[in-house]
C-alpha cells in the first residue's frame, strides 16, 4: 500500500513538472513570436527560474544550494539583452542563457547519496543524452493511466479526460460566442488565436515540441537515477624525463625567438616606418601566428598539467614550466602590442577589440596555471578554475557597451587627432548603441548626414510590443 502511495506521489510530481513545461512553451510563444529581444528575455528567464525552483523545492529535489550561484551570470546576461544591441548580446546571450539554465537545473537537482566529489561528468544525463527521450513512455503512462487500485485502473484517467473535454466544448463555444459579441477586442483576439493558417499550425506544433522535450528533460531530473556517479579515470603518466626534455627544448626555442627578434616583437611606429613596412603588414605579419602560439601553448600546459596533477612533478619540472609560462606571457605582450599599434593607426573594430580582450584572458589563465603549479592544485580544481574565469570573462564582456566604446574611440581619434573616421563602419556594422557617438561626430562637423539618413531610412517602423521594451 505504501509503495502505491509513493508511486502516486511521484506521478503527481512528474505531472507538475510537465504542466510547467507546457506553461513555459506557451510563454515562449507569447514572449518571442515575431518580437525582438528585450525585456521578454528577462521575464522568460525569471518565470523559468521561479517556477522551476518552486517545483524543485516542493518536491524536495534541491540537493546542491551552491548551484544557485549560476543565477548570477544568468540574470546578468538576461539584463544585458535589455540594455545593449551588439551581436554578442543579441546572438550569443540567448545561447549562453540556454546552456547556463540547463547546467543550473542539472546541478541543483542532482543527488549525491554516496557523497562523491562533484564532477559534471558524474551527472548521468551529460554522459547519456538519450536519458530524457527514454522518459516519453513514463510521460504517456502518467497522463493516461491511473494506478488507483488493481482493477479498472487502466484507461480510467483517459476516459475521464475525454468526458471532461466533451462536456466543456459546448460550454466553451457558448460562452466564447457571447463574449466575442460583447467585446470586439476579445473577438479579434479569439479570431487571431484560432486562425487556422500555416503560421498558426507551426506555432501550435512548436509549442507541443517544446513541451515534449522540456517535459522529458524535467522528468529525467525527477528520476532516482539522477545522482552523481564516481568515474575512475586513468590518466596517462608523462615521465619526468620526457617532460624535462620537452620543456627544455621548447623554452630554448622561445628564448632564441624572443632574443633574436626582440626589437621586432616590441617595435614602435618608428621601427615600422624605417623598415618600409605598413602598419597592416607589421600587425598582421606575426600577430595571428602569435595568437596561435598562445592557443597551442595553453593546450600544451593543460594536457601536461593533467598528468602532473595526478602523478606529481619535481621542482625542476615546476621551474621549467614556470619559465615557459613567463615566455608565453612575453609573447602575449608582443601580440597585445601589435594589436594596439594597429588600432592606433586604423581605429577600433569589434573583432580587434575582442582579440585584445582574449589576450587579457590568456594572461589570466597563465597566472592561474602558475599559481596552481606551486600550490599543487588538483586538475579538477584547476579545470573548474579555468571554466570560472571563462564564465566571469563572458559576463564582463557582455555587460560592456562594446559598440558604443568602439564608436567613442574612433570619434575621439577623429576629433582630437584629426584621423580618418570610417563612418560607414559605425553606421552599418555597429548597432544602435553607437548612435550617440555618431551624433557627436556629426556635431563636430563630420559631413556624412546622408549615411546616417540612409541608415535611418532602412529601419522599419513598427508598433512594438511592450515585451520588446529595450533601453
Radius of gyration (CA) equals 30 Å
Kindly give the count of domains. 3
> What is the percentage of strand-forming residues?
under 5%
- Unreliable stretches (pLDDT < 50, length at least 5) are 1-5
Q: Summarize the biggest pleated sheet.
A: none
What structural class do helix, strand and pairing data support?
Answer: mainly alpha
Bulk shape = flat
Description:
- It is a single chain.
- With 471 residues, the chain is mainly α.
- The protein folds into 3 domains: 2-222, no CATH class; 247-384; 403-463, no CATH class.
- The protein is 73% helix and 0% strand.
- It is built from 20 helices and no strands.
- It has helices spanning 2-32, 39-58, 71-83, 87-109, 124-127, 136-144, 156-182, 184-193, 198-222, 240-260, 262-265, 269-274, 279-311, 315-346, 350-375, 379-398, 402-417, 423-428, 435-443, 449-458.
- Helix 3 runs parallel beside helix 16 (379-398) and helix 7 (156-182) packs across helix 8 (184-193).
- The longest helix has 33 residues, at 279-311.
- The protein is flat and about 90 Å long.
- Residues 1-5 have low confidence and may be disordered.
Amino acid at each position: 500500500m505504501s509503495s502505491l502511495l509513493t508511486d502516486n506521489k511521484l506521478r503527481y510530481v512528474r505531472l507538475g513538472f510537465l504542466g510547467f513545461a507546457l506553461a513555459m512553451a506557451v510563454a515562449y510563444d507569447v514572449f518571442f513570436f515575431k518580437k525582438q529581444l528585450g525585456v521578454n528575455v528577462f521575464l522568460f528567464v525569471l518565470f523559468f527560474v521561479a517556477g522551476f525552483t518552486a517545483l524543485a523545492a516542493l518536491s524536495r529535489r534541491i540537493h546542491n544550494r551552491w548551484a544557485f550561484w549560476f543565477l548570477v551570470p544568468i540574470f546578468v546576461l538576461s539584463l544585458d539583452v535589455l540594455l545593449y544591441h551588439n551581436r554578442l548580446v543579441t546572438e550569443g546571450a540567448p545561447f549562453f542563457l540556454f546552456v547556463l539554465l540547463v547546467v543550473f537545473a542539472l546541478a541543483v537537482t542532482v543527488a549525491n547519496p554516496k557523497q562523491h566529489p562533484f564532477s559534471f561528468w558524474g551527472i548521468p544525463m551529460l554522459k547519456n543524452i538519450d536519458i530524457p527521450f527514454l522518459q516519453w513512455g513514463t510521460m504517456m503512462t502518467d497522463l493516461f493511466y491511473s494506478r488507483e487500485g488493481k482493477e479498472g485502473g487502466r484507461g480510467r484517467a483517459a476516459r475521464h479526460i475525454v468526458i471532461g473535454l466533451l462536456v466543456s466544448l459546448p460550454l466553451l463555444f457558448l460562452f466564447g460566442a457571447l463574449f466575442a459579441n460583447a467585446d470586439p477586442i476579445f473577438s479579434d483576439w479569439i479570431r487571431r488565436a484560432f486562425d487556422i493558417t500555416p503560421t498558426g499550425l507551426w506555432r501550435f506544433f512548436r509549442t507541443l515540441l517544446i513541451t515534449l522535450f522540456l517535459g522529458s528533460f524535467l522528468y529525467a531530473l525527477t528520476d532516482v537515477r539522477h545522482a552523481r556517479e564516481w568515474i575512475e579515470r586513468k590518466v596517462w603518466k608523462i615521465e619526468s624525463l620526457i617532460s624535462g626534455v620537452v620543456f627544455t627544448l621548447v623554452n630554448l626555442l622561445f628564448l632564441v625567438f624572443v632574443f633574436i627578434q626582440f626589437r621586432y616583437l616590441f617595435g614602435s611606429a618608428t621601427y615600422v616606418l624605417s623598415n618600409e613596412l605598413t602598419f597592416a603588414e607589421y600587425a598582421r605579419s606575426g600577430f595571428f601566428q602569435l595568437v596561435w602560439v598562445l592557443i597551442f601553448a595553453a593546450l600544451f600546459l593543460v594536457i601536461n598539467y593533467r598528468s602532473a596533477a595526478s602523478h606529481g612533478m619535481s621542482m625542476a619540472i615546476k621551474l621549467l614550466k614556470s619559465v615557459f609560462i613567463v615566455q608565453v606571457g612575453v609573447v602575449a605582450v608582443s601580440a597585445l602590442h601589435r594589436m594596439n599599434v594597429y588600432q592606433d593607426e586604423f581605429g577600433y573594430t569589434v573583432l580587434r577589440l575582442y582579440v585584445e580582450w582574449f589576450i587579457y584572458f590568456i594572461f589570466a589563465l597563465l597566472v592561474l596555471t602558475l599559481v596552481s603549479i606551486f600550490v599543487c592544485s588538483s586538475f579538477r580544481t584547476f579545470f573548474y578554475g579555468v571554466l570560472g574565469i571563462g564564465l566571469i570573462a563572458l559576463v564582463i564582456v557582455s555587460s560592456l557597451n562594446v559598440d558604443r566604446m568602439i564608436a567613442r574611440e574612433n570619434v575621439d581619434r577623429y576629433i582630437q587627432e584629426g584621423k580618418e573616421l570610417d563612418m560607414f563602419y559605425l553606421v552599418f556594422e555597429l548597432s544602435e548603441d553607437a548612435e550617440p557617438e555618431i551624433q557627436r561626430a556629426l556635431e563636430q562637423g563630420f559631413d556624412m548626414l546622408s549615411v546616417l539618413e540612409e541608415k535611418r531610412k532602412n529601419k522599419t517602423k513598427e508598433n512594438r510590443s511592450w515585451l520588446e521594451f529595450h533601453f
